[in-house]
Amino acid sequence: MSVFSAPAYDRHELVTFSSANASGLRAIIAVHDTTLGPAVGGCRMFPYADEDAALHDVLRLSRGMTYKSALAGLPFGGGKSVIIGDPQKDKSRELLLAMGEFIDTLGGRYVAAEDSGTGVADIRVMAERTRWVSGLEDNQYGGDPSPSTAYGVFLGMRAAVFYRTGEKSLQGLKVAVQGLGHVGYYLAKFLRNAGAEVIGADVNAANLRRAVDDLGVFTVDSGEILAVEADIFAPCAMGAVLNERSIAALRAGIVCGSANNQLATEHDAAQLRDRGILYCPDFLVNAGGIIDVHHQRLGSPDTLRQEHVGRIEGSLLEVLRRAEASGHTTEEVAEAMAEEILERARLGRAPLKAAG
Ligand code: NAD
After folding, report:
1. Rounded to a whole number, what is the distance in angstroms from the first to the last CA of the chain?
2. Cα separation, 285 vs 280, whole angstroms
């Protein structure tokens, strides 16, 4: 496994590996950029096929975190960690303590939060060995940032629909939601309250049932959700769902969801554009969760947090306008806007030249 020549390597500041034999921990932490502050990002546990797959994931996800925080106006850099293993079978208290110790070795340059395969209870165990974890503070949902993530995605949908049609309401629109877990469930709730019809799919029968019973979501088989006749497709399960084949099958005119790294490759953004599908960059519209965590730490009132998440709507409109004017993809434009913010911060930090 080589880091520097890995396809997803992008001048990451630090990539570090841990293999704590007694606990069985095999983990990677990637710090992409700390220009704006400490690298904040989730700790994911997943049964990766091999180490290269884990490295690829952590490199891509940490870069996405840099852009997410920059566009959201947060004082954070981008980082991520991955634990190689099946969260159902391989997770143990010893493993989580070892992960806490690993995170601690970075002395605060990386701050971990929950992610797929880890939950608040796991982060609490890690916190016995490091203070560099986040997302444990209480809010009205008990610290879970998912409702704020869902709200940001919902606002992204509203902006995209407004951009396309001039309509400010989602009333009567059909939205296909892939994954009705933490975020997907709350997203479906916002959509139902706004008068939209939700068609959902999930491989987890209990999550599917909850959405049907509580929210009146219509269901389809998880293999069919991508090609369902809908106005909006919302990927809220796993990454890389948008690839050459799936994009060709899509019937929705807008893609807006919470999943990280929805595009399998950078070329897929161009294919979406060429098919006339408005793609809302994931790292922009799914920033509600990290904004929430930031305000939990500050102890901000709910109104301030909501106002901050609410800025996603305006940022997305700016991306859509710039993309249309330039012919670039929305992904390229959003990345360029994040790079502008980082560059300004770097220049602001450069030491002054001696006078004369
Ligand atoms: P989750 O694990 O609670 O929910 C994911 C759901 O997707 C589960 O119900 C799972 O059964 C389902 N799923 C998995 N594979 C599927 C498939 N092939 N077809 C249909 N359903 C499938 O995770 P979450 O916290 O809701 O996050 C969803 C996505 O959003 C993830 O990609 C996550 O990284 C991203 N995200 C989450 C947050 C947050 O605040 N939770 C913030 C930013 C990004």
Report:
1. 50
2. 7
Token digits of residue 276: 């006339």
Shortest CA distance to 30 belongs to which of 48, 46, 42? 42
- To the nearest 10 degrees (0 to 180), the angle between helices 182-193 and 205-215 is 20
Length of the chain measured in residues: 356
Please answer whether residues 146 and 114 qualify as being in contact, where contact means their C-beta atoms are separated by less than 8 angstroms: no
pLDDT digits (tens, 9 = 90+) for 9-21: 999 999 999 997 7
* CB contact at 8 A, 337 and 323: no
CATH numbers and ranges of domains, the chain: 14-65+77-126 (3.40.50.10860), 146-288+315-338 (3.40.50.720)
Q: Give the number of the atom of ligand 1 that is nearest the alpha carbon of residue 207.
A: 9
pTM: 0.92
- Interval between CA 181 and ligand 1 midpoint (Å): 5
**Ligand 1: which residues within 6 Å by Cβ?**
116, 145-146, 149, 178-184, 201-204, 207, 222, 236-238, 258-260, 286, 289
Residue whose pair of structure tokens reads 């497709």 in the numeric block: 233
For residue range 230-255, what is the model confidence (pLDDT) as tens digits? Answer: 999 999 998 899 999 999 999 999 99
